[in-house]
């Protein structure tokens, strides 16, 4: 950032208080903030006590090894026991844990008692295959219940899982296997996607060729497709099928490694973020309870993320299952076989709590309001968002068209590195502002600072930092602790802050607005302008469904704003629209933020987890060859965008 603070441009005056009945019955009330403020460690110790420990901790937090924390020092617990067995012991074995919905329409309900048997069998099978505490297990799996079973089986025996998103290439999988030194790979023959099948096993085979550390490949049969079979391959239904349902969970140290998860890696080699046991589960479990207000007896919860991302780890597997939730797991895409598929699933399972991403919400808005209107969504009582800043207009669309104008919407900010939600409204407490993640949760502390680390006043923007340790914080980068220090802790070493890499502003009330990655912030005539604010202004124009904005080099202003815009279904591109959009942005946030150039496109480049890759659009806007596109979900998108821009080069 330049010397200018991040400009605070967009104003938003709409407010949404929790419905009275919701507030009265909320899991977490306003007093939690003061309680946590009075004694942060006592507060987290109380949340840790929501779990079942074999050995009590002797110290809540040891921060002497900063930036590597130890939480609940000396405590011992088993994560799988906490997520499964204890619910069965409490008499809830018949409760459905997972309603699985396959893309072709097949479905399966798995109760907690059945989950306990499956996890125990898998734990025995893994042990039989030589997996021991501390060994790494790579999991390259579709969205099927066996994926959660495999993760929990690793946790049960103290092995470290590394889940690799199923749409990653064989090379990406091999690099992650090698970095972690994984001994076992768990995969599937394939999965259903967009009406067809993907042969996952072929990718796994290619990855394992040359990955010396892999001793066995455990293969779940999902599609029944013909697969090549090698000497290391073992069918899941043979190994797990034959194993005993008796397995005694061993208690592991609170700091025992639980998983490695590689960040999406927009730059350089992906980082293997390491999470451990007691602190991670404490915060994943508490935040799920607090932010989603789960009532395990009556709610049906659905997180639409893929289990290959941190959202899937914390809010499909560990958070909800530790709380005894009944949840939906869906294999496929939102538009197969039709664009109402998500709403059909909400209707079918009477989903009450839904957690999805802004990219999906903007896509639903683009498809049209009439699609969700065809389904009964009256079971919904809370909506959540994660992954990117949610534009105020997308927030309003979500609440109105999905939430029937009655449900609270919680915008949850966090990262792979934070392990669990950090900044979010409390749905029964907070009067929410559309587009704001509002305040740090009880027990969490964050702030906005300038480039020198000085805290900015309300009404100003800057860099988001986390200034106090939290239970689910990453404990390092696998095999490269120096990179952990350099990436997150070096920038504000003097103040001891964790630097999140995101821009943010504090509004006049001190509520937080996330403004996107710092790398994306534009510098126009000496003003730091966030891409998020300009995008939000564009998305508030009725014809616009989605927008991505970049700063391109400009001789007079330093950078000029170039916008890429997707129109809603049925809207036409013309010269009047171009002028109208520019005038609209000028009116909403001021002439300084008016795009110089607006390009209407059909798609935007996104990572496989749905985040817009502005770096590539910047290449196009600056008329140079487009950089590394390997993390793109759909590499053809860039060709389409370049083809539309008259001056763009072909690389
Ligand atoms: C959970 C997850 C982390 C980055 C983060 C930020 C962006 C996530 C957000 C958000 C604004 C939100 N991000 N949630 N930005 N508002 N509610 O997405 O983890 O994949 O590691 O990404 O995503 O930029 O720094 P991860």
Automatic annotation (TrEMBL):
Mg(2+) binds at residues 539, 544. InterPro entries: Ac_CoA_lig (IPR011904), ACAS_N (IPR032387), AMP-bd_C (IPR025110), AMP-bd_C_sf (IPR045851), AMP-binding_CS (IPR020845), AMP-dep_synth/lig_dom (IPR000873), ANL_N_sf (IPR042099). Keywords: Acetylation, ATP-binding, Ligase, Magnesium, Metal-binding, Nucleotide-binding. Its cofactor is Mg(2+). Residues 533-611 form the AMP-binding enzyme C-terminal domain. ATP binds at residues 387-389, 411-416, 502, 517. SUPFAM superfamilies: Acetyl-CoA synthetase-like. GO terms for molecular function: acetate-CoA ligase activity. Residues 31-83 form the Acetyl-coenzyme A synthetase N-terminal domain. It catalyses: acetate + ATP + CoA = acetyl-CoA + AMP + diphosphate. Its EC number is 6.2.1.1. Residues 90-478 form the AMP-dependent synthetase/ligase domain. Belongs to the ATP-dependent AMP-binding enzyme family. Catalyzes the conversion of acetate into acetyl-CoA (AcCoA), an essential intermediate at the junction of anabolic and catabolic pathways. AcsA undergoes a two-step reaction. In the first half reaction, AcsA combines acetate with ATP to form acetyl-adenylate (AcAMP) intermediate. In the second half reaction, it can then transfer the acetyl group from AcAMP to the sulfhydryl group of CoA, forming the product AcCoA. This is Acetyl-coenzyme A synthetase. The lineage of its organism: Bacteria, Bacillati, Actinomycetota, Actinomycetes, Catenulisporales.
């Amino acid at each position: 950032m330049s010397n200018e603070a991040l400009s605070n441009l967009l104003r938003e005056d709409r407010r949404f208080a929790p419905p009275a009945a919701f507030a009265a019955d909320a899991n977490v009330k306003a007093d939690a903030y003061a309680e946590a403020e009075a004694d942060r460690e006592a507060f987290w110790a109380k949340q840790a006590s929501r779990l079942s420990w074999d050995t009590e901790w002797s110290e809540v937090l040891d921060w002497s090894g900063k930036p590597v924390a130890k939480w609940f020092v000396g405590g011992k617990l088993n994560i799988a026991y906490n997520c499964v067995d204890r619910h069965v012991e409490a008499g809830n074995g018949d409760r459905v844990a997972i309603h699985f919905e396959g893309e072709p329409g097949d479905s399966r309900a798995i109760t907690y008692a059945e989950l306990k048997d499956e996890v125990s069998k898998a734990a025995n099978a893994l042990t039989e295959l030589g997996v021991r505490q501390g060994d790494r297990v790579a999991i390259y799996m579709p969205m099927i219940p066996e994926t959660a079973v495999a993760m929990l089986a690793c946790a049960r025996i103290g092995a470290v899982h590394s889940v690799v998103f199923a749409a990653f290439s064989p090379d990406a999988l091999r690099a992650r296997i090698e970095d972690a030194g994984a001994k076992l790979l768990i995969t599937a023959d394939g999965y259903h996607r967009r009406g067809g099948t993907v042969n996952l096993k072929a990718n796994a085979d290619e990855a394992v060729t040359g990955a010396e550390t892999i001793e066995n490949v455990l293969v779940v049969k999902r599609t029944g497709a013909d697969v090549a079979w090698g000497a290391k391959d073992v069918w899941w239904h043979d190994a797990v099928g034959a194993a005993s349902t008796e397995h005694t969970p061993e208690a592991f140290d609170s700091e025992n490694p639980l998983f490695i998860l590689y960040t999406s890696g927009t730059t350089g080699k992906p980082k293997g973020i390491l999470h451990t046991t007691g602190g991670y589960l404490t915060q994943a479990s508490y935040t799920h309870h607090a932010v989603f207000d789960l009532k395990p007896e009556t709610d049906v919860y659905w997180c639409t993320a893929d289990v290959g991302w941190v959202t899937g780890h914390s809010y499909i597997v560990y958070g909800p299952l530790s709380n005894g939730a009944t949840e939906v797991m869906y294999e496929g895409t939102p538009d197969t076989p039709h664009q109402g598929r998500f709403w059909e699933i909400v209707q079918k399972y009477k989903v009450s709590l839904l957690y999805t991403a802004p990219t999906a919400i903007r896509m639903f808005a683009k498809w049209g309001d009439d699609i969700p209107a065809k389904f009964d969504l009256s079971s919904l009582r809370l909506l959540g968002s994660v992954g990117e800043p949610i534009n105020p207009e997308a927030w309003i669309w979500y609440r109105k068209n999905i939430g029937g104008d009655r449900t609270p919407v919680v915008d949850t900010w966090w990262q792979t590195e934070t392990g669990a939600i950090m900044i979010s409204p409390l749905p029964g407490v907070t009067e929410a502002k559309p587009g704001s993640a509002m305040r740090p949760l009880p027990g969490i502390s964050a702030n906005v600072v300038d480039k020198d680390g000085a805290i900015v006043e309300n009404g100003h923007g800057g860099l988001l930092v986390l200034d106090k340790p939290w239970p689910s914080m990453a404990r390092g980068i696998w095999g490269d602790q120096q990179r952990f220090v350099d990436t997150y802790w070096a920038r504000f070493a003097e103040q001891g802050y964790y630097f999140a890499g995101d821009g943010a502003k504090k509004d006049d009330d001190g509520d937080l607005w996330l403004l996107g990655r710092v790398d994306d912030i534009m510098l126009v005539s000496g003003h730091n302008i966030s891409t998020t604010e300009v995008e939000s202004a564009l998305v508030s124009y009725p014809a616009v469904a989605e927008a991505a904005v970049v700063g391109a080099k400009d001789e007079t202003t330093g950078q000029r704003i170039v916008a890429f815009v997707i129109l809603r279904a049925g809207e036409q591109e013309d010269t009047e629209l171009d002028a109208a959009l520019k005038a609209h942005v000028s009116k909403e946030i001021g002439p300084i933020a008016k795009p110089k150039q607006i390009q209407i496109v059909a798609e935007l480049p996104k990572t496989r987890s749905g985040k817009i890759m502005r770096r590539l659009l910047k290449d196009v806007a600056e008329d140079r060859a487009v950089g590394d596109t390997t993390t793109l979900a759909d590499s053809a998108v860039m060709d389409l965008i370049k083809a539309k821009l008259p001056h763009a080069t072909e690389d």
